[in-house]
Specification:
The protein has a single domain (5-344), classed as TIM Barrel, CATH 3.20.20. 35% of the residues lie in helices and 16% in strands. α3 packs parallel to α4 (122-131). The longest helix is centred in the middle third of the chain and has 16 residues, at 151-166. The protein has helices spanning 21-34, 51-64, 85-93, 122-131, 151-166, 180-188, 199-203, 207-210, 227-238, 255-258, 273-283, 290-302, and strands at residues 5-9, 13-16, 37-40, 72-78, 97-102, 135-137, 172-174, 193-197, 244-246, 310-314, 318-319, 324-325, 330-331, 339-340, 343-344. The two termini are 24 Å apart. α1 links the parallel β2 (13-16) and β3. It is of the alpha/beta class and 346 residues long. The protein has an eight-stranded parallel β-sheet with strand order 2-3-4-5-6-7-8-9. A three-stranded antiparallel β-sheet has the order 1-10-15, with helices on one face. A two-stranded antiparallel ribbon has the order 11-14. It binds N-carbamoyl-L-aspartate (NCD) and zinc ion. Zinc ion is lined by residues 15, 17, 41, 176, 249, 251. The site of zinc ion (ZN) has 6 residues, from loops.
Amino acid sequence: MTVSSITVPRPDDWHLHLRDGAMLEGVVGYTARQFARAIVMPNLTPPVTDVAAAVAYRQRILDAVPEGMDFTPLMTAYLTDNSDPEEMRRGFAEGVFTAAKLYPAGATTNSDSGVTDIANIRGVLEVMAEIGMPLCVHGEVTSADVDIFDREAVFIDRILAPLVKELPEQKVIFEHLTSEQGVQFVGSAGENVAATITPQHLHINRNAMLVGGMRPHAYCLPVAKRERHRLALRRAATSGSSKFFLGTDSAPHAREAKESACGCAGIFNAPYALESYIAVFEAEDALDHFEGFASRHGPAFYGLPVNEETVTLEKRDCVVPDEIDVGAAKLVPFHAGETLGWTFVG
Ligand code: NCD
Ligand code: ZN
């Protein structure tokens, strides 16, 4: 069947980096244009670790949303070795924290204050499980002896599988899933374990980073892996399973910070996120599962209503620019210079 347009309830982005200050002001409109809500990552410097910081950050985000756009940031608490269980309880009860984020220390951008040993947040996790507060997880180990392409699979064996066994009630979102082992783990875990999948991990494998030269704009963490993993992710995302849903992990870094001898990890995909995702569903002949992935599975997992407003994508070409000037920086968007087959019409 050929389809010329698709209308779905307005999607949400269940994993997003908005940054702060001028960068925040420059990028938030791209997300607000396509999405109603977003789970906002707390990896600022300093990180958002307590209720007061989250309230203040939420207000800065709302102040930066362009006039006439409606957007709800859902805040997360950055867990550290010293996180206070009562602060989590209070933030969740007051509706400030939607979830808490586990960054293994040193795993990615601004994760230095992250958790050095999962045992250190045992008390926090017990309270979170008790009150039903979801845990967003960056699922990579950081030990120097583990190859970067294996870090997700090893994290499952060493950290996540035991955690899910010990706290079977805890709601866990395995963020930006990148491996076959991750798909397998989430798929066979209980209903309280789900995962987000980014556009880039559905479109590219590690060749995109390394063939014909080093391509820093294809570098993000967790790093894109072999083709076999990308195919497993595409099957999961388009399967119709409610365990998998949209989370862009859009992570803006100035062009020069990426095109550097030690380039930053992160792909800015917010401007054409829905066009990017829907191309995958079309190619997999699964357009009928796009709505679940983009608009329904995330709210269902988080216990939030599906958005009432709708958005439409039309099947016509959309040319992605080589660069986007957001004022604070020049950013190279995901799919720079490519033509996508769908256009977001609002
Ligand atoms: C993110 C960032 O830049 O904040 N980078 C990335 O490559 N995804 C951090 C993260 O989510 O790992
Ligand atoms: Zn992220």
